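Budget justification note: compute hours in this period were largely spent on complex prediction jobs such as the one shown. Inputs:
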Amino acid sequence: VAVPIVAVLEIAGHFHFASAAPPPERWSTLKEPVERLHQEGDLVVVAPYWAEPNARAVFGDDLMPLRDVARPDEVAYARIIALSILGEDTDIPGLTLESEQLHGPFRLRLFKNTRHQPMLVDFADLIDSETASAVSLRGKKETPCTWDAEAKVSTGAPALHGHPTFPKARFQCAKSEWRFVGVTVIEDERYRPHRCIWAHPGEKESTVVRFPNVTLGNVIRGHGGISWFLERESKGSKLSMEVLVDEESLGVYEHADGDGWSEFSFPTSQFAGTPHQVEFRVSSPRSRQREFCFHASVH
Amino acid sequence: MFPNVLAALRTALRRNGADWLIFWTLCLGYATWLLSTVSDLGYARDEGFYFQAADAYLDWFLILFDEPGKALQQSVVDRHFRVNHEHPGLIKSLFGLSRYFFYDQLGWFEEKGTSYRFVGIALSSLAVGTIYRWGAEAIGREAGLVAALGFAFIPRIFYHSHLDCFDMPVLAMWLFTTYAYWRALERPTWGRVLLTGVLYGLLLDTKHNSWLLPFALVAHWLLAHGGELWRSWSKRRLGIPPALFAMALIGPLVFYALWPWIWSNTIPRLAEYVKFHTAHVYYNMEFLGQTYFEPPFPRSYAWLMSLATVPFVLWVVAAVGVGEVARALWTERLSPWIAQWRAAGLAASLRDETCDPALARRHSTFVLWGLFILVSYAPWLSNSSPIFGGTKHWTIAYPFLCLFGGLGFVGIVRSACASLSRVRPASFGPRYFWLARAGLAALLLTGPFLMTAHSHPWALSTYLPLVGGAPGGATMGLNRSFWGYTTGAILKPINDAMRRKSERIFVHDTALQSWAMFEEDKRVKRGFKPQLDVAGSNIAIYHHEQHMARVEHQIWVDYGTVKPVHIGAFDGVPVVWLYARPEKAAPTK
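Corresponding output:
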């Protein structure tokens, strides 16, 4: 008797699971409720994570812009709209449920983020010739990097093993294509995306990213990492990034292969509320494949 | 006349004809199903490389037909067979010849790609028929039928059966060789022995899985025929089956003859071939949410993936079959032997010839099948065996798993009929047993059939209800697809995305040769210019694998959008998706 029961259960399971997750076109039924709920600065997340492309295809860049999809973490968001299917839950810590709606197979929940720290400045937004500059620093000698708003985009070849995108707008610091400062996206140890400022150091040269006029808050916090595709090999030298305000060092963030997308923070309450020059100096004893990328923000 | 025909048919069927009829029905039925679905399936990455190799080998055959002397010159042989020489030449030669005869000459196929794939389709279909024959001869017709259909209804077998790759050909050749070997053991006629040797040569010339077969056969001879061997040695006879000799002698000759690449520099080239596979480069594979790029690989990989991708009901009936075999081996063979060993000593117990020959043959068959399963999985007992190709590496075990399933089915039917007869002896007599058999077979095979039909053309994205289907597989972090073949599932949106006369398309994991076949088959519009860089493209395909996420990130930054224009999903799980560069984000010079 057991074998026919197994056969029947498997057939039933097949029909159940084949229709359990809504197909991509069904996600469009959520657009209107999400738009109604969404306020400026809200983050839209999806659980399970693998279903996120279905949401992006429907909500587009307005509700799910690159900066949100490839966020450093969730601290900057006061409210989080979590869409879920299959009874899955978001894995973001520190959320308090505000409201919940059910739409067919979807659960739409609004959370208050108890770990929220308002973000005053995102340094990645300031990567522009007007608001930032970059230099190569060898000893005390500075060589300015050249701003190019129409640089040749490069993704490396062959495509399966290419590098993170070298963006169109960037400070080019040397002839080598990879010596630039610009905004791109790297993947972390879970292959999740992070929008960040690429600052590959040179051989015996630091790469310095300078922001001359930033109104500070209580803290500069951020994350750094190397594309996990490279970092997982643990073959590279240590990296360090010194953070300076008005040429005064706040401290050094060190990154070793295997650390993954890791966090740093430096208190700046003594400078809070006034504009200052902020500088990030990235260096490494050996420059080979030190594709360092960081995100930093003022809170 | 009609009654005469029926009578003749009945006589023919009675004389073993029914088995041939079922054999050919299975082969032709499976081939028809594969051919009717082949055009929906995109070309996998490796298929592209084999199209190229097949064309190069075909060119050589055409020279051979026209100018044999020229074709046999080393430089000519090398020029043609250098392409993809890391695998033997037989199957790629057949791909090329199939193209020549069935597409170029006879025009049987509308799509050129199908003509290469026809070799795999034909061999896979013959494998289904052979499973039936073996099962029918060793156990009974219904067992053979359940085994053959159970095998045909494994979703990943169905997928691989479509391809111009070596995985199904090597499975088929292994099956043909071992079936011939088994028949040569049963009755070692010259014809059967020679055929086994020739088939082993063809197996050697198909793929390197062939290297594992001698281990299984030697182990089988020792385990199942150890006593016989002992008795032969006592009488100063070798006691080794002639088929094994034939395989050892004829196999390498056939292998050599059919692979022109090794006609010169034989030893270095063979050494290179062996080294390529024993020191195979590690690719990557996602398993339980982690992508493995290099050893150590998890030892649970092969077993868990098998459970997740082979219908569970087949495992259950196979387990019943294995249980029956274990019980029979214990009660009919091991237990009496141990008793005799205790009573008369080891030497005397080995000399004993009282075992029923029919029973011994039956046991020998089951031990043989069991060893083929173990040998197929054995490489994955080592945590340094590469796992890049997923389940296809050990599919050779599946025919034998299904044959045990056939045996299990017979056992289940027997006990079900016995129970029903006991419960309602008046209304359920032996004349209704066929109904129980047919009903149970239909019940067991319906699920696998439905799952297999449903899996097309998503194939490798298919996970079965035991792990929660495709969504369960995605949540568990099991690889969603590889080889870039899912391009075939979104060709319409790709064609629809063409906005200009000439459109640069990033084809991601689809090999350029595979894309070229889409063009030849007119499955994509003219005017696409395929490329392997995201930069400079206007349309981008993204084939999801965990480690490929970085490619999607490349697209976001270059295109300035995270919004796919189309998602190809299987059961709600995104598998392959398409980006179109927004007009405002024109590619840079």
